[in-house]
Amino acid sequence: MNRDGYEYEFITRIVELVSSMIKQDAFHVGDYPVGLESYSEAFNYDVFLSFRGSDTLHGFTGYLFKALRDSGIHTFIDEDLNRAEEITPAIVKTIEESRIAIIVLSINYASSSFCLDELATILDFLKRKRMLVLPVFYNVDHSQVRQQEGSYGEALVKHERV
């Protein structure tokens, strides 16, 4: 993807989708309503961005963050590339205080235990109908993620050994 063509159009569509999700009175995951409206006072962020910094921070995710912010969508981005191995309580709290999570699944996302912890936390909130999740497959085929093949399969095998 490059910033000038497809990537720019893709980011624009993501921003439009998120904007429309925020404006809706009721959220749905499939046919099921998500109880976000009753928690609106608990949200400090519209969007939480989960991504592998070394893959996308200074490219796709950075552009996405800027586009969301420029559209008035209050977005959290953790720009600390020197983070700890484990997810911090502050990050868990920030995820909990976000209405929507955008997960940028890039080639090295699964190689980070921090990213996998973020993902597990986000999916827990999704299961409890506290958050909407928008996965973005960035330079990785969705089937590799789903079937745990390629870089995702290799990374998960390494995590299992630890």
CATH H-level name... which superfamily? Toll/interleukin-1 receptor homology (TIR) domain
What string, H for helix and E for strand, traces the elements in order? Answer: HEEEHHEHEHEHH
Mean pLDDT: 83
CATH architecture name: 3-Layer(aba) Sandwich
Question: Which structural class should the secondary elements be placed in?
Answer: alpha/beta
Poorly predicted regions: none
Main sheet specs? 4 strands, parallel
What is the gyration radius calculated from CA atoms? 15 Å
Query: How many separate domains make up the residues?
Result: 1
Order of strands in the sheet with most strands: 4-3-5-6
Instruction: Tell me the fraction of residues in β-strands, as a range.
Output: 15-25%
What is the CATH C level class, in words? Alpha Beta
CATH-defined fold name: Rossmann fold
Helix content: 40-55%
Question: What descriptors fit this protein?
Answer:
162 residues, alpha/beta, Rossmann fold, two-stranded antiparallel sheet, 6 strands, globular
Describe the overall structure.
- The chain has 162 residues and is of the alpha/beta class.
- The protein has one domain: 3-Layer(aba) Sandwich (Rossmann fold), CATH 3.40.50.
- Helices cover 45% and strands 17% of the residues.
- The protein is built from 7 helices and 6 strands; from the N terminus they run αβββααβαβαβαα.
- It has helices spanning 6-23, 53-56, 60-70, 89-96, 113-127, 142-146, 150-161, and strands spanning 27-29, 32-34, 45-50, 75-76, 98-105, 132-137.
- The strands form 2 sheets. A 4-stranded parallel sheet has the order 4-3-5-6, with helices on both faces. A two-stranded antiparallel ribbon has the order 1-2.
- Helix 5 links the parallel strand 5 (98-105) and strand 6.
- Helix 1 (6-23) packs across helix 3 (60-70).
- It is globular.
- The mean pLDDT is 83.
